[in-house]
Design brief:
Distance between the termini: 27 Å
Structural class: alpha+beta
Strand content: 25-35%
Largest sheet: 9 strands, mixed
Order of helices and strands: EEHHEEEEHEEEEHEEEEHE
């Protein structure tokens, strides 16, 4: 199998990435539902869920890590599952703005090749930021290159809607369904109203943002409370 420089099969397809803790997978059932739904909608034939889970079990047993990154890639004619050690990011991070506009083609599916997304992140990191906020053609906030966003505006925690071009992230879903986060359109002009913010992803879970550009955000009780709620709901699940 030929891989690109980021470790993805060159054929192109759909994938999901999950965090593992001592051989269990955080929110595995949500990951499975999303990737199976995307494969069905995109016409990618994949094996049964039972076969997939069995292979995941074997992989996690053969490559054990206390904290790991499980990546499941599916494409027409095959699949690639990998499990690597993951070093957690815990300190609040800075984000900037991307000059790229969100491509709404196949929005809602987590697709590879993933090079454009990773290049956006690398460009931000070259400037000492963790990631960059991407806007759509209407200058609405979408997400960063690899994470969903949650903002505290006035007294409400809000996240952009899927219709803006946002991936239905697993942790985003938990935050909305179980932690009281609301869904609302956010324009670039709303950024100065942001009091606090998080990056959410299957690896970062809920990572506080300290700065958007040069704008310093709060990291106080509201942020600590929401982070604790999300982490309490993002629990590891047995694969079997």
């Amino acid at each position: 199998m030929t891989l690109d420089k980021y470790g993805f099969p060159i054929e192109g397809g759909v994938f999901t990435t999950a965090k593992t803790i001592n051989g269990s997978v955080i929110a595995l059932n949500r990951h499975m539902r999303r990737v199976l739904k995307s494969a069905m909608e995109l016409g990618i034939e994949i094996r049964s869920e039972e076969e997939i889970r069995l292979e995941i079990v074997e992989l996690l047993h053969s490559q054990p890590f206390s904290v790991g990154r499980l990546r499941l890639c599916f494409f027409n004619g095959g699949h690639l599952f990998t499990h690597t050690e993951y070093e957690e990011v815990t300190a609040p991070v800075r984000v900037t703005f991307s000059s790229e506009t969100m491509d709404l083609t196949n929005a809602g599916h987590k697709l590879f090749p993933y090079d454009k997304r990773l290049e956006i992140r690398q460009s931000a990191q070259n400037e000492a930021f963790e990631d960059a906020i991407i806007f759509n053609w209407q200058n609405e906030v979408t997400e960063t290159s690899t994470s969903n966003l949650i903002f505290l505006i006035n007294e409400d925690w809000v996240t952009p809607p899927l219709t803006a071009g946002v991936l239905p992230g697993v942790i985003r879903g938990i935050a909305i369904e179980e932690c009281g986060v609301k869904v609302a359109k956010l324009h670039i002009t709303d950024i100065p109203q942001v009091r606090a913010a998080f990056l959410t992803s299957s690896l970062k879970i809920a990572l506080p943002i300290s700065h958007i550009g040069d704008y310093k955000l709060e990291i106080g009780a509201p942020s600590q409370n929401l982070e604790a709620q999300i982490r309490a709901k993002a629990l590891p699940e047995s694969v079997s």
